[in-house]
Amino acid sequence: MKTGLGELHGRRSTSEKAERTPGASQGTSGAQPRSSTAASAHPQLARRVASGQQEGSAAHRPRTQAIARAPVKAEPLRTTGEGASASSSQPKAAKTSRINAALIAQALSMMADNPLHSAREVIRDIGRATLGDHIGKGGICRKPELLQTMPDYEDHKPSILASLRRLHQTEQADWLEKGMPGSGKRPLPDGGTADPPAAKKARASRQPIHPEQIFQAMSDRLASGRNLHGKNMEKWSNPEKWQQEKLATRLAKHEDYPLWRDRIEPLARRLGLIGAQENLPPGSARETFDAAKLVAALRLISQRTEAKASQRLDAPCLREALHDGVGVKKGLLYNWISAEGVLRKPPKSIEGLPGYEQHGPEIRELLTALGQQEFVAALDSGAPGLSPISARKVAKVLEMMCATSPRTQSEIAQQQELPLTTLTQYVRKDGLNIDRLQRLADYGAHAGAIRAWAQRLGWKDQAAALPEPAGPSLPPATTGSSRMEAALFLKQAPGYLDNVERVARMLRDAPATAIQAAADAQGAPRRIVRALLDERGRVRDLSGIGQLLSGVDGAASARIAGLLARLSARLDPPPDAGPPQDSRVKMLRQKVGGTAPDRILLVDRHTRDPGQGAPDRLGSIYRQNSALVHPPRSYAQDRHAQPLRWLSTLLRQQFPETDSEIQCYYDAGSGSIIVSSNETGFNTTLRTFLAGEGMQALLAQSPPPAPIDNTQRALRHEAKLLARLDPASDPHPTPVSDEIFAAIAEQRFAVPDSNYQKDSRAVHLHAERRIADHLRDELDTPLDHTMLAGTMRPCGTCADELEVSPSTHRGPFWMSKSSRAYVEGQSDIHRQMRANIGSSITQARNGRLTFNHDTDSDSDG
């Protein structure tokens, strides 16, 4: 009998819910652990879950829960101004009411909080169709002169101006801030006005100009003697316009101006824009609000409240204005908080403030003391389980945006476990917020990856403007505090080996190229490039790297030496590189036909090949290589591999439409099972299946009735896995296999989400290599090949890349672009030949020879 899905979902006890801690029930796979009570709907699952809970160590349980949690979509929190409707379900009659400044302020604030919400969507949410007459695309105010005459305009002016600036409607905000009288005309960027027919053109000219564009326009003007960049750029090289429109002041307001000031200044002198002894103004970037300033404001408000309550009216905290005490502009402060401590932004905006992760606890404490318990509750529950933003996640987001099948930012935010409003403060559809991005704690470690993905997205100006992280200098007179940690280097460097190789070739082909420029061009972090290469593209020796890294112990030295050997073999293969002359094995290339890739077999050098097209060619080859044919065997020595193999087969059977293999890996540190296929898209499907009702229903099935036809691999694996979810039915339990069964029963799964590309095309990287990358990047742990099992044994390429032991059986070398991705030539094949390791094949229970699955088991286990 099969257990109903309703029973599986509906039996979560109150005590079990209380035991789960917020934020510790979601993870990379998007799967939630099944509750012990829910599992009781199926006896085997109940016993296996209980067994796992008793035997699982407390040390790794929190990480297990963190890996197994699923993204949560938080409902958007909307603010309402005075006279504003809080819901779109308001009676229709109310929609015809007069538009006021409160409604406009509310709409602009909602657009600024989430730039992906269009004006049309915000107007629909508020429920005032006539708002469209006042607010246009991008937050432009269509009737600024009418807005100024609204009775409540002054009350909401600070909020409106702040929102306009956040929406990059700076010129209009400046125009409104000057309080210019209404003239029936709309503001232009230069402070003038335009009749309505010209408004569209005016808005088009309002697009922000990056300092790099100005630098390029000036350079071309000096080189050619004329403007080459269109009418809108002409004024930036015109001395008269430079003075009339105060372009130097406007330029200084750009957030990237400090990066370009020294390069633009000499050009401005040559063009006569400034005097020979005159300098461009210093940067005047707009002041921003952050969590530290909010804490300062809340502290001061709390002190002022206590002073007033105790009649200490001469207290120092009451002698100056609140904004002066905090040290920020009045309009900026009151855009976020009132003098009484009432926040004017929704919880999501507060959570998105820079530094909120650090100051969040004190913010909640101060708000509670000021009587803002409801707001604090919204902060605590608004986005349960969501992770703080980091530069690593920004790089991952950009990589996902580059995918051949790109997802929406909402989907990306959910997959990366980020609030959408937080993500859009760093990454928008049209570019990056560099000012916020460079403040992230791990920016230095991921700046190179962010730059590379930004270039891939076509954001070349922003990629060039990304500030450089501090890194080790050459020659290595590096201080200990600025050197890169060896552990961090070893975690990151293998993933960039392909990029570093291209950097080295670039430096060798063009010796005049700066190493920094080459690293940037190839998307490699500068610190990793500098550690591995010298200025001429030569690979450093181990002692040279040791001076650039800190924390290099014996184990780290061994791993670094292996990395150097691999890089050197790619760049400078030894003269004798190639097929060894004395190997006991030789290469046989077999054309499979159709769209299937060729495969290279390593077999005994005396093997006679009957030739392409000969009947039973494969059988003939392997009858001469009986040592490479693996019939059913006992798994008595590695019982823990069996449930992983069975799980891989069972999952593979759920998706007969795909040809991808599936591999499973048990990570003891996190108590989770890493599952991967060869395809990023299929991994997304797996992640959804493993997290949802599909996997629950699969595990809740009763085993197929005995007797089982043991020649049917899929049926045999299904029967054994489902039966042994009950610990009592396992004839050969081991501590590790018990942990694996418990992880399966509790659905503690993770699925890698990396999107691999080469030459702008998707790469179907083999599952084993995806799992190894996931372990390195997400869990900071190396792959233990004894904990890996799947539907197929590793191919020759994967065995070489994962550096498995020589005794590990491996299949042929598949000569497809995806299988050979990031591999130089045939060096891996030659290494296996030098080690005299042949290509194994499986003899199934029905006697058939196949590469399509790993060795069968004839043991009762």
Instruction: Provide the β-strand percentage band.
Output: 5-15%
Quick one: overall form?
A: globular
Q: Which regions are unreliable across 5 or more consecutive residues at pLDDT < 50?
A: 1-41, 55-97, 181-206, 381-387, 471-481
Largest sheet: 4 strands, mixed
Structural class: alpha+beta
Give me the oligomer status: single chain
What percentage of residues falls in helices of 4 or more residues? 40-55%
Strand order of the largest sheet: 12-11-10-15
Description:
With 861 residues, the protein is of the alpha+beta class. It folds into six domains: 1-73 and 637-793, no CATH class; 92-205, no CATH class; 211-270, no CATH class; 291-381, no CATH class; 391-465, no CATH class; 480-571, no CATH class. The chain is 45% helix and 6% strand. It is built from 43 helices and 18 strands. The strands form seven sheets. It has a four-stranded mixed beta sheet with strand order 12-11-10-15, with helices on both faces. Strand 10 and strand 11 (672-676) form a beta hairpin. Helix 36 crosses helix 39. The two termini are 25 Å apart. The relative contact order is 0.09. The model is unreliable at 1-41, 55-97, 181-206, 381-387 and 471-481 (pLDDT under 50). Residues 1-94, 174-210 are annotated as: Disordered. Residues 23-39 have a biased composition (Polar residues). Residues 8-20 have a biased composition (Basic and acidic residues). Residues 84-94 have a biased composition (Low complexity).
